[in-house]
Each structure stands twice: as C-alpha cells, then as structure tokens.
Design brief:
This protein has 827 residues and is α/β, with parallel strands linked by helices. Helix content is 23%, strand content 36%. The chain has 19 helices and 47 strands. The strands form ten sheets. Strands 5, 6, 8, 9, 35, 37, 39, 40, 42, 44 and 46 form an eleven-stranded mixed β-sheet that branches. Strands 4-3-7-10-36-38-41-43-45-47 form a ten-stranded mixed β-sheet. 48% of the residues are buried.
C-alpha cells in the first residue's frame, strides 16, 4: 500500500495540485519569513529533529517557487508582511479558567454563523495559530479517541504523527503547501481507533485576532479500519429582556441601528444581530429573586466577581463562604462563561448613568404621573365621546386623603377634575383635561398590563425621579415594618417591562430591588370566577444595615442564588455592540459573540489531511465565514482506502478571496468520495472553489456537487477535476456544477477538467448558469412576500443539496445566514 501512496503524492502533486493557495502575547514573532522565524517556531514547540528538517526543506522549496499564474492572481500578496507566529499563553491550557481573560473574551465573541456550538463534545480553540485550549469528553477517551491540538500530538503521539504527517499533502505539492508546512503552528489532531464510531461531531474554532496575522493550522485526521467520525470547523433564547436605556425589549426584537445599554451604563449602537439554532444545555441564572432570572447558553460570558476571590473565611457545611465587602469593592469584575459560574458568585447589575432633564415636567406633574402609574387609567367614554382620565383609590381615610391631594394637584395646574364615590364606595378622581390625558398616555401608557415609562421619565435626574417614585409608591406600594427598624416596601404590577423599569429607577436612587413573580391563578370574587394575571412584585428594604447585595457607584454586586440546567432546542439570539460588545440582560452585564474586521489583510492558510483506512467513514464539514479582509488559501485532501468513504461538505461565505478545492484520492476498491461545495460571493469577494476526485482503484464511486451564488458584483468560480486512472475499472462518477447570478454586476466561471483513461467508466457531467427570473419573484411577491423574502426562498431552494447534508440545526442556521445575506442584513 505504501507504493500506491508514493505514486499519488509524487505523480499527481503537480498535475492535480491546483488546490495551491492559495497587547498581549506570551510570544509574538517578528514580521516576515525566514529560517530564523521557522527555527523559533521549532524551539518554542520543542519539536523533534525530523519536523525541523521537514520545515526547513519546505521553506527552501517555497522560496524557490513562484506563485501560480492561473487565476485568481496572488502576485500582489506580500508574504513578508505577515506575522507567522504568535503564542498568546505560552502553553496549552487544560481548562477555560486557565486562559487569560482577554483570550476567553475573544472566543466569547465568536459567533457570526457558528452552529459549532451545537455539539460541544470536543472543542479545540486555535488563536493566532496556537492551540490554547482542548477539551475531550470523557466518553471519547474511554473509546481511545484522541482529539488534541497538533503541537501536543507531536509530543504525545509522535509515531502516528511521523507516520502520516505530510503524506497526504506533501510540501512539494503546491506553492502554499510549501509555505504552510514551513510555518504551521496549530491545528487539530484526531485519531479514531479501529471499529470505534464517534456519534457526535468533533469541532474546532479558529480565530485571527490581529491584523497582518497569518493563521496556519494543520489538521490531521486518521480513521482506522471501520471507524466513523465527523469533524466540524467552526447566546440567549428568545424573550430575554435587554436594556435600551429607557425600556427593556426582548432580544429577538432588537434591530441594527438601535442603541442598548452597555456594562459601563452608557448607550451604544447595535451593529450586528445574530440568530443561531441551539440543541443542548441552557442555564437559568437566578440572582436573588425569581423574576430576575435569565437564561443563556453555557458559553455565554457574564460580568461577575468570583466569591472565592473575595472570601474571608472557609465555609461551613451547607453555607456559602463569607465575602469581604472591602475585597469586593476593590475587585475587578471579569467576564466569565455562564457554565463556569458557581452559587454565591457576584453578578454585576449596572444602573444606567446617563441623565437628561425635561424642564416641562414640574414637581406637580411628576406627582400626578406617579399616582397615574399606580392608580390611573385612560378610557373612552361612549356617551361623552371622549377620553376620560380616572384614578381609583380605596375606601379608607388614608386613600381618601390621597385622592384629595391628587385633586388639589390637578387644580394647581389650572386643569379641572372632580372627586366622587363609585358604586362600590371607592374614591375616584376624574378629569377630562386633554393636556393631562395626553401627558399620562405618552409618559406612562394605557392599561395595567401595558404601562411603560417613556424615555423622558427614565432619563430624568435622580432628584426628579425620586419625586415621581415617591408618589407611585404612595398609590401602589405597601410598607411592612421589619425588625431593627427596617421597612420593606413592595409594589406589584402585571407589566413585566414596567417592573424592570422600576428596578432601574430604584437603582438610580441607590436601592437594589428584587423582583419576584407571583403566578396567576383562578379565583372567585363575589360569586364570579376570575383569572388573576401573573404579577411582578418589586420589593426593597429601607434602613437595612446589612445586605447580601453590595453597591459601588452605579453597580450592584448581586450573589447568585440558584443555577438550573435544562435541555433546550430552538433559536438563540445575540447582538453586536459598536465599540463595546456588551449589553445588559435584565440589568446584568453580559458579553456578546462576534469577530473583528481590519482594514489591512490577514492570511489564512490551512492544510487538512485525512487518512480513511479500510471500511472507515470520515465526514468533514466546514461553514466558513471569515471576515471580508481575510485571504483564505486552503489545501484539503483525503486518502480513502478499501471500502472507505470520505465526505467533504464545504460552505464558503466569508473572506476577501477563497481558493479551496477539497480533494479525495480513491486508493482502494469500493472506496467512495462525496464532495458538496457551496460558495456565496458578495460585494468585493472572490470565491474560487470546487472539488477533485482521483480514481486510482476499481469499483470506486464519486459525486461532486457545486453550487454558487453571486451578488453585488461578487465573483464565483468552479474548478473541478475528475481523474480515472488506467486500471481503475468500473468507476461511477457524477459531477454537477450550477451557478446563480442575482444581478448584472456579478460574474461566475466554470473550469471543469475530466481525464478518463478507462472505457467502462460511467460518468455524467452537468453544468448550468442561471439568473433569478422576474416571473419567479413576481409570483412569490404576489402571494404576500417581500422581495428579500422571495429572493431568499429561491436561493435557499437552489442551495438545498448542501443544506440537507447538514444536521438539522446546522441547516437551519445555514438557511438563516443566506436569508440575511439576501436581505442585506449581514454586515
């Protein structure tokens, strides 16, 4: 078998090698490419001599070569302008906690289209070419599966690495293979023993964080006979409330261009919105009170202070450790993944610090508005044919006194009002004043369930807010005298949004209020069955000498009371925030998941080698969405032996330039190759992609499907090769490449190559280039669709062969991504 391998790597390396091209660090190399740079990589990795020799041979070979002349042109790339190595930590970590905070923050920001979070069975994180963290699920270890970074594999599994490294893609293969072999410094290593079937995808995250940085990961996957493995490269559920400063809104309803409050208590505009499918854990974090609980994925970062970092003594059994207020006040909160939080850790509740006065809101009007929020309503009187403003009070003398005070307040503004007893002998204050009706409606809304404070009230100076709040609590608050002269004050509302606004207003006044949910229930009142709605009880204590919640400036440190894990399948949401990347969920600071874009170029050059031994199944899926400043030059190749199956499922939607042609060499009888390549090119993008199937054994089969979409001047190109060697009898192969142009400025090209040296081969080839017909769009739009939705439906239907090969949640995300591209919603 080794002679056959030699034949492939030597005889075909030139002929079929058109998959050519293309702060804070523990160590950061110098810019440029030289023997000194390569030697430094070897030294830092403590690599064996055979790897050093291989790197040096590759470097000399690269320096003697010229970039390939065929399109797309790479001659303008200055390979001396990149940093070829950066190590952010100095060593690989065994857990996320061991990573520096800024690296954890960077990975928390990953998430433009990454459905990779679905199965976190094993995760490899690659940051600036260096593996910084690897986690292997225990069950995989029991099966003998190895999933590590390539540098670690070189030390711990040297025999396997030496046996297979560079045998599928040797450095002589092409221009970029030579460069990549010389300077590789990260990647994933997967080894699956004979007969082992890995049922969940293994996956990796890759990140270029610095401009002019080169990312050179080297991935090696070995599937021993009859093994199976899937490898995938690689938020908040709906209804969670995000603070916009004047109100809270469900995260799925927030749009780009709107502003949200950040962890600094200031407004910043939203520049991206994300939605991802999620099938896995959701954590419910309960800080002090039930209604303040919020849900998020375990990977989502939350601003917090670890209790253990501010503890003063060991805990007694069943008790939390005592926290030092002095230590807590001097502690610097950090963003911590939700899955790493523990009971008693302190979350950071942020009070917005921005204020703006409204001179038209006098002290008298603020008192009236406070009472309206508590006791008032505006309704349409049919007999009078006009709106009526009414305040309802109780029967007691204190309620009568409050009603009389309100009446005097209204009269003092020059408006008319009356006070009377209702049939139920409740006190009512009524007014027909259009001025007051308009003020109450615009400032506080209408109806108990939909009342909401407007932006003017929410941004008032604290002194003015205190007046408004005092009179609201006069009407709707209950006072309970507790021990040691403290007084608990409670107010209830059926408006969830209003409850969180009141919590924020109280926070501005220096008091942290809990919000508890009182579930609705059926009841019988005066013989009539009624349904009580859910009520949100806002409560705080005055005069309390000690509290589990501590305050510093505009922040409250609130201990976690409970953490609950549950299964969840559905969509989760995230937002990108300009210049900050944080936002508040029910007042608590969290970080988002995003990626940077630089004005100068970055280089991503990867090699993936797959060895599929007899009877094995290896599936490699890529959903690539690099920033639009990245040059993505990749070589991916597999060797499939007897009865083995290799599947490449490849989507390219990001990067400025992509050159990628996944290849499968069918070396043994009855081996199979499946390649699905999909590309989307938007404005300023070139996606030069395709696939290759090299049949070197009898009874082999292959299928290549390529679909591309061009929009806004983008260019796609298909480059495919089907080679059937002499002696490869009874081969069956089908090739289909289709392109879709969405406008006049976009272009596409097709470069299919077929070399068939056996007469009994069965080969089919189809190709097409099409445009979206006006009739199609008109038909869909006549049935109520917008043009963007109609276009999305046509494009998603066109790309169905790719989507149906993905797990369901990945397919949902892929369709969502393309829908956003069609409606110009992806920045």
């Amino acid at each position: 078998m080794s002679s056959r391998t030699d034949t492939v790597t030597e005889d075909y390396k030139e002929k079929y090698g058109f998959s050519d091209p293309v702060d804070q660090y523990a160590v950061k190399g110098v810019k440029g490419l030289s023997e000194r740079v390569v030697q430094e990589i070897v030294r830092l990795h403590d690599e064996p001599s055979w790897m050093e020799q291989l790197r040096m041979k590759a470097l000399r070979h690269f320096l003697d070569m010229k970039p390939p002349a065929w399109a797309p042109d790479l001659s303008d790339i200055d390979y001396q302008s990149f940093y070829y190595y950066a190590n952010p930590t100095g060593k690989a970590a065994n857990s996320w906690e061991q990573l520096p905070e800024y690296i954890r923050r960077t990975y928390d920001k990953l998430g433009i289209t990454d459905a990779e979070k679905k199965f976190l069975a094993g995760v490899g994180a690659i940051y600036e070419s260096e593996a910084v963290y690897h986690s292997i699920q225990g069950e995989l270890q029991k099966q003998g599966v190895v999933f590590s970074d390539t540098v670690t594999a070189l030390k711990e599994h040297p025999d396997i690495m030496k046996k297979y490294f560079g045998t599928v893609v040797p450095y002589q293969d092409n221009f970029i293979a030579a460069l990549q072999t010389a300077v590789w410094s990260a990647g994933s290593f997967v080894y699956v023993p004979e007969g082992v079937k890995v049922t969940m995808p293994l996956q990796a995250y890759f990140r270029i964080n610095e401009r002019n940085m080169g990312q050179f990961e080297r991935t090696l996957i070995v599937g021993e006979p009859y093994s199976e493995v899937t490898y995938i490269e690689g938020c908040l559920p709906a209804d969670e409330l995000v603070s916009l400063g004047s109100e809270t809104r469900q995260i799925q309803e927030i749009s780009r261009g709107e502003s949200v409050m950040t962890h600094e208590g200031r407004k910043r505009p939203v520049n991206r919105t994300y939605v991802h499918p999620h099938d896995g854990q959701l954590l419910t974090i309960v800080p002090q009170s039930s209604a303040s609980a919020f849900r998020l994925t375990p990977e989502h970062p939350v601003l917090a202070v670890r209790r253990e970092s501010v503890a003063v003594r060991k805990s007694r059994r069943g008790w939390l450790t005592e926290a030092s207020t002095a230590k807590l006040m001097s502690a610097k909160p950090e963003f911590v993944k939700a899955g790493e939080l523990k009971l008693g850790d302190f979350l950071v509740y942020v009070v917005p610090s921005e204020e703006s006065d409204d001179a038209s809101l006098s002290e008298t009007l603020l008192k009236i508005l406070g009472l309206y929020l508590a006791e008032g309503t505006v309704s349409y009187n049919i007999s009078l044919r006009r709106d009526v403003l009414e305040f309802s009070f109780g029967k007691s003398e204190s309620e009568k006194s409050l009603a009389k005070e309100l009446l005097d307040l209204i009269h003092s503004t020059g408006e008319r009002a009356s006070m009377y007893k209702s049939r139920g002998k409740y006190w009512v204050v009524s007014s027909h004043s259009k001025k007051l009706i308009d003020l109450c409606k615009s400032s506080c809304g209408i109806g108990a369930a939909t009342k909401l404070l407007d932006e003017g009230l929410m941004h008032l100076p604290r002194v003015k807010q205190a007046i408004f709040l005092k009179y609201y609590l006069k009407g709707d608050g209950n006072r309970y005298v507790k021990e040691r002269a403290s007084v608990m004050i409670r107010a209830s509302t059926v408006s969830r949004a209003l409850a969180f606004q009141l919590q924020e207003v109280l926070g501005r006044a220096g008091m942290f209020a809990n919000i508890n949910l009182r579930k609705g229930s059926e009841d019988t009142i005066a013989g009539r069955r009624t349904v009580r709605k859910d009520q949100y009880v806002v409560e705080y204590t005055e005069g309390k000498k000690w509290s589990a919640v501590r305050r510093k400036g505009n922040r409250f440190f609130v201990p976690i009371k409970k953490i609950v894990s549950s299964s969840f399948e559905g969509r989760v949401y995230n937002i990108g925030v300009e210049g900050d990347e944080t936002y508040l969920v029910k007042g608590f600071a969290v970080h988002n998941c995003s990626a940077p874009v630089y004005s100068s170029q970055s280089l991503h050059s990867a090699i993936v080698e797959i060895v599929a031994r007899k009877g094995s199944l290896v599936k490699y899926t890529t959903l690539q969405n690099w920033s639009k400043d990245v040059l993505n030059l990749v070589t991916k190749r597999a060797h499939a032996y007897e009865d083995a199956t290799v599947s490449w499922v490849d989507f390219n939607g990001g990067s400025k330039l992509t050159r990628k042609y996944p290849s499968i060499y069918l070396l043994g009888p009855r081996s199979r190759a499946d390649i699905i390549s999909v590309a989307y090119a938007g404005p300023g993008q070139v996606q030069d992609t395709g696939g290759k199937a090299i049949h070197l054994a009898k009874d082999t089969t292959s299928k290549i499907i390529s679909r591309s979409v061009s929009k806004g001047g983008g260019h796609t190109a298909y480059r495919g090769l089907l080679h059937i060697a002499k002696g490869a009898k009874n081969v069956k192969s089908s090739v289909r490449c289709d392109a879709l142009l969405l406008d006049q400025s976009s272009t596409t090209a097709t470069y299919p190559y077929m070399e068939i040296q056996e007469d009994d081969a069965t080969v089919t080839h189809e190709a097409s280039v099409g445009k979206v017909g006006e009739e199609q769009l008109f038909y869909l739009m006549s049935r109520g669709m917008t043009e963007g939705d109609a276009l999305s439906m046509v494009v998603n239907g066109f790309l169905e062969p790719f989507a149906k090969e993905l797990p369901m949640t990945y397919a949902v995300e892929f369709n969502r991504l393309m829908s956003l591209e069609m409606t110009n919603a992806v920045g």
